[in-house]
């Protein structure tokens, strides 16, 4: 198949999943065309079967805001015509599905008919979808996509609640390559340099948006570090990073916290950790939590969104009500003080991640593609 994937190129979950999906599809013999305004963060351009098409947005004095969605639609049309795509796969409803929908209509006028699959990742529904200024357009695109998928049962249910008369939604969870995300010896993951005195290491990876509650991350670490010597790795960047840094200073723990900024090679960072912290207000799935589990790292987070579909409380990590940093911190401390229990939880985390092995999940996308192509011919 020749598949066009429209995505955000950033470090957020939707862009990472779309990129990893495209790379996995290329390894399985498909021809994949990524379409975005810059190369996706995890894109490996030298992979056979992988192509990248950049969206160029013209800067006209007439416009106060550059018309990205129009430019994106035009680029999608060009790629369809030039590369003879079989199918479009839009990750994130707005603006990608709307731009892909317009492109599909443009080429249909030229006698070319190809299906559009829209994959929902979370905030495109739970935040953007709630905005009345977008709701009607989003609803129309969801109804007129040839197929819809969501990354968790939570997101499927939330979408159906907000938009009750859309077409059926296939739940296809996020996935992980456990040959890439796996436990590593201390010297390979640089743990000795991160915790030279043998301190425990806690980690957090995100885009530092308010929904990630990065100040809760700092609070949990502060409480843990009071009981057992520890260090905190903060990976990523975003609007809440200055607040997190200020909170670290207010606790006088600057010497225990490392802000690493954006990191592509998180598969080398996660295995250094003893616990992974993801105390978000809402996670549609929690891809970074899955990557932590595959790395043999238990996860601590909240009963929020789709995270309970990934993390099993008291087995592969701990869950608490949103804002209950004390319960999470105490559970982490208790576990770290019991090496055998901690090791067992590590093993269970690694085992649980196998359910999301890419070799199990990617064929589900391929089956959905084939179904949409067959329906498109009928």
Overall description:
With 378 residues, the protein is an alpha/beta fold. It has 2 domains: 195 residues, Rossmann fold (3-Layer(aba) Sandwich), CATH 3.40.50.2000; 166 residues, 3-Layer(aba) Sandwich (Rossmann fold), CATH 3.40.50.2000. It is 43% helix and 17% strand. Strands 3-2-1-4-5-6-7 form a 7-stranded parallel sheet, sandwiched between helices. It is elongated, with a radius of gyration of 21 Å. It starts with a strand and ends with a helix. The mean pLDDT is 92.
Characterize this entry briefly.
Helix content is 43%, strand content 17%. By secondary structure, the chain is of the alpha/beta class.
Flag low-confidence runs: none
Please state the second-level CATH architecture of the largest domain: 3-Layer(aba) Sandwich
Per CATH, the superfamily of the largest domain is Glycogen Phosphorylase B
Structural class: alpha/beta
Q: How large, in whole angstroms, is the Cα Rg?
A: 21 Å
Shape: elongated
Spatial order of strands in the largest sheet: 3-2-1-4-5-6-7
Alpha carbon gap, first and last residue:
18 Å
**SS element count, helices:** 14
**Which whole number gives the mean pLDDT?**
92
Helices and strands, in order, run as EHEEHEHEHHEHEHEHEHEHEHEEHHH
Strands, total number = 13
Sheet having the most strands: 7 strands, parallel
* Structural domains: how many: 2
Tell me the strand percentage band.
15-25%
What do we call the CATH topology of the largest domain?
Answer: Rossmann fold
Task: Give the helix level as a range of percent.
Answer: 40-55%
The CATH class label of the largest domain is Alpha Beta
């Amino acid at each position: 198949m020749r598949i066009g994937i429209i995505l955000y190129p950033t470090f957020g979950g939707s862009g990472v999943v779309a990129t990893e999906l495209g790379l996995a599809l290329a390894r399985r013999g498909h021809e994949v065309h990524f379409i975005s305004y810059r190369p996706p963060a995890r894109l490996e351009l030298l992979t056979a079967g992988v192509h990248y098409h950049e969206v160029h947005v013209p800067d006209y004095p007439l416009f106060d805001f550059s018309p990205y969605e129009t430019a994106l639609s035009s680029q999608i049309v060009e790629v369809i015509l030039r590369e003879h795509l079989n199918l479009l796969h839009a990750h994130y409803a707005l603006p990608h599905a709307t731009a892909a929908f317009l492109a599909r209509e443009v080429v249909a006028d030229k006698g070319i008919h190809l299906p559009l699959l829209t994959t929902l990742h979370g905030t495109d529904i739970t935040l953007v979808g709630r905005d009345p200024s977008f709701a009607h357009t989003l609803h129309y695109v969801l109804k007129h996509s040839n197929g819809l998928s969501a990354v968790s049962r939570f997101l499927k249910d939330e979408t159906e609640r907000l938009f009750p008369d859309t077409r059926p939604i296939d739940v296809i969870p996020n996935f992980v390559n456990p040959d890439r995300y796996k436990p590593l010896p201390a010297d390979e993951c640089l743990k000795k340099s991160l915790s030279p005195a043998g301190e425990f290491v806690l980690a957090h990876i995100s885009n530092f948006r308010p929904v990630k509650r990065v100040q809760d991350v700092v609070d949990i670490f502060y409480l843990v570090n009071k009981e057992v010597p520890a260090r905190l790795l903060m990976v990523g960047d975003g609007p809440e990073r200055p607040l997190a840094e200020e909170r670290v200073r207010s606790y006088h723990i600057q010497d225990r916290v490392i802000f690493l900024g954006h990191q592509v090679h998180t598969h080398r960072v996660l295995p250094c950790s003893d616990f992974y912290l993801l105390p978000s207000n809402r996670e549609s799935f929690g891809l970074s939590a899955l990557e932590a589990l595959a790395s043999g790292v238990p996860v601590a987070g909240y009963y929020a969104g789709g995270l309970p579909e990934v993390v099993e409380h008291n087995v592969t990590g701990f869950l608490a009500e949103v804002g209950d940093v004390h319960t999470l911190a105490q559970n982490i401390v208790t576990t770290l003080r019991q090496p055998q229990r901690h090791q067992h939880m590590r093993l269970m985390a690694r085992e649980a991640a196998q359910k999301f092995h890419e070799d199990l999940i990617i064929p589900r996308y391929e089956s959905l593609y084939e179904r949409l192509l067959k329906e498109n011919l009928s």
